[in-house]
Fold this protein.
Amino acid sequence: MKLNEIRDNDGARKARMRICRGIGSGKGKTGGRGGKGQTARTGVAINGFEGGQMPLYRRLPKRGFNNIFANKYAEINLGRLQAAIDKGLIDSSKEIDVAVLCQAGVIKQGYNGLRLLGNGELKAKITVKVAGITKSAKAVVENNGGQVIIAE
């Protein structure tokens, strides 16, 4: 093999479509833009335009709002926590918090803290540090001899 013999594999680089270069090209005459009018030209701005009729997004009433100050929590069920302990991803003898779960790959992101939900079974005795917990989840953890620390 020589430097002057090196080339791409077949089909590695696709030639760009040359539009508006005659009918033989397959994209001649209108160049794939249909007929005449606004949409055949550049700078089209008719998204949401309904021919002078009041557009749908203005006919319908506005409702609700997004609270930009709301806290978002990483949520996890007891069953998922037990599965991670069974696999050996988490050490149940140590305190379990957001950082431990992220490092183990059980949750992707911590957001503003951890919220523990009561779905599933928990057999291990654990100490969890959470931002929020449901009543059922708290009851299960404490019945197993565990401890719940609610972080501020």
Summary: The chain has two domains: 18-61, 74-150. Helices lie at 56-59, 78-87, 98-104, 135-143. The chain has a mean pLDDT of 93.
